[in-house]
Amino acid sequence: MAGEARFAVTNAVMAESDRRCIESGTPSIELMNRAAAAIAEACPRGGRIYVFCGSGNNGGDGYAAARILLSEGETVKVFAVSDKVSADAGYYRDLLVREYPQALCGISECDYEFDVAVDCLFGTGFRGEPRGIYGDVIDGINAARGFVLSADIASGLDGTNGIAVKAVKADLTVAIQTFKTGHFLNDGKDCSGRVIAADIGIPVCGKKYRIIGDKDVAKLFPPRKNNSNKGSYGKCAVVGGCSRYVGAVKLADAGAAALRAGAGLNVLCVPDCISGAVGAAVTESTLAPLGSKDGALLFDKYALDEAVRGCRAVAVGMGMGPCAEENRKFIAELFSLGIKVIVDADGLNALAGDTALTDNASSDVLLTPHPGEFARLTGRTVKEVLADPIALAEEFAAAHRCTVLLKGASTFVTDGERGALVVNGTPALAKGGSGDTLSGVITGLAAQGAELFDAACAGAYLCAEAAKLAAERFGEQGVLASDVATAVKTVVERVSAPREEG
Asked: From CA 192, how far away is CA 175, in angstroms rounded?
């Protein structure tokens, strides 16, 4: 997906767009035929092609696609899972029976010995758990060894939130008209395989979520002038650490990541009781020891203001420990300085006790929670967050006048009005310290002048690409946060604009 500007929509938006397109004069059976043509075009040729059709319009796409493949001389069997079909599906099923009567089979005849399976059991509107014969068919498809192509969405996968109790595991998904948010959230990426979009002429009306690519990130890295210095690219800071969670290397990684992302200067603000350990791990950042009590940061307005003086962006919360009341004092002060503030980890836990702090902040605020932290912020359960991540993040960002970066299999970023998906995440980031590195990159980008929404999108994208590079050397299991911080520079070099000639 690198380098391409694309969008995803929810089920509701796609359904409304489809309805309006039909009402404007495009017959529904014509749209079904266009979808079928796209599915047939993407289908691998040769060998035995089994098409599995459900009762709805997704099944109709399968009947119509089978006709096209049969007309090209392919070996196709169509397995009807239900005798009941929608009106449009019935139209193409009847055509299939009239033209290729030998192709239609009962599902009981299926041996699952296919080379290619075309999954047309359920569409994007399905929710819940496939049961009965549908569940059995999904099990049969997943147990087989052939290539699996899903029409619009892997059957069993929720098209909006990407949750699947049981779903087809596709190698390729042909998204009709545009991507759905469920292709990328929660279980979506594991079920969808590679996802391509087929434009069939439906004007999409409603909210679209941009899928971040190289071009979105490149705009944050204009050519640098020869006549520049470290002050030209911004000063930033990272505030965190405690004796319980020294995390010296992680804090150093966050600082290094900010500098790798292009910031001119970074300051690490840590409790004086751990400054020696942190100092030993720091090579490029400036160290600013702050007062402490019982191993944790002790708020001192003057000392904090001095430490972050001149900073355009500050990240706060990494390893601060469980002293929520004291941590909130740091956050409240940073919120009053009119800068960009990125809140992560223990900072988020502190905010969960007083989310109103963000409401009247004079600083621009970005929160970077994972689902558990976001559940605490919103007073929801993790299950509720996963079931509706986009709507809940948008609602919270709008209500509290902040930007939210909600982590997951894909990352969602919103300021309450705009929304974007960063879908290039990798299991290589499932390692302690990855969040610190992400916050560091975002802080470095914000220090250079990027808006927090853009910095959050770009930071998440850069860290994912950097993790993939690191995984080429260390494997997904062996990647460390420091590897990601180091690899960020290579990704930045790849996506950034050419350097201005002297």
From this structure: 10
Angle of helix 57-71 relative to helix 87-99, nearest 10 degrees, comes to: 20
94, 63 Cβ separation under 8 angstroms: no
Given this model, what pLDDT does residue 4 score?
38
Separation of CA 412 from chain center: 5
Instruction: Name the pTM for this structure.
Output: 0.95
**pLDDT less than 50: residues of the chain:** 1-5, 499-502
Tokens for 393, please give them: 């993040």
Is residue 274 classed as helix, strand or coil in its secondary structure?
helix
pLDDT of residue 250: 78
Query: 162, 116, 117, 159: which is closest to 138 by C-alpha?
Result: 117
Kindly report the backbone phi and psi dihedral angles of residue 178, in degrees, each rounded to the nearest multiple of 5, phi listed first. Answer: -155, 170
| Secondary structure in 3-state letters for 386-408 | HHCHHHHHHHHHHHHCCEEEECC
Reading phi first (left if > 0) and then psi (alpha if -120 to 50, else beta), residue 238 is in beta
SS3 per-residue string spanning 152-195: CCCCCCCCCCCCCCCCCCCCEEEEECCEEHHHCCCCHHHHHCEE
Q: What is the pLDDT of residue 496?
A: 82
347-362 per-residue burial string, b: 16 or more CB within 10 A, e: under 16:
bbbbbbeebebbeebe
Sequence-distant (≥ 6) Cβ neighbours of residue 143 within 8 angstroms: 112
Contact indicator for 39, 151 with CB cutoff of 8 Å: yes
Token code pair at residue 363: 């600083």
8 A C-beta contact, residue 481 and residue 250: yes
Strands 75-80 and 104-106: parallel
- Cα gap 400→390, rounded to integer Å: 16
Q: Which helix (H) or strand (E) holds 473?
A: helix 452-478
CA distances from 468 to 55, 125, 191, 433, 461 (A): 41, 33, 20, 16, 11
pLDDT for 174: 98
3-state DSSP assignment of residue 290: strand
**Cα–Cα distance for residue pair 213/234, rounded to 1 Å:** 25
The confidence score (pLDDT) of residue 281 equals 84
Which pairs with CB-CB distance under 8 Å and at least 24 residues apart come from 367-370? 367/343, 367/402, 367/403, 367/404, 367/405, 368/342, 368/343, 368/344, 368/405, 368/407, 368/435, 368/438, 368/439, 368/442, 368/456, 369/404, 369/405, 369/406, 369/407, 370/406, 370/407, 370/408, 370/435
User: Which residues face 149 on adjacent strands?
Assistant: 118, 172
Q: Residue 369: name the closest of 386, 158, 222 by CA.
A: 386
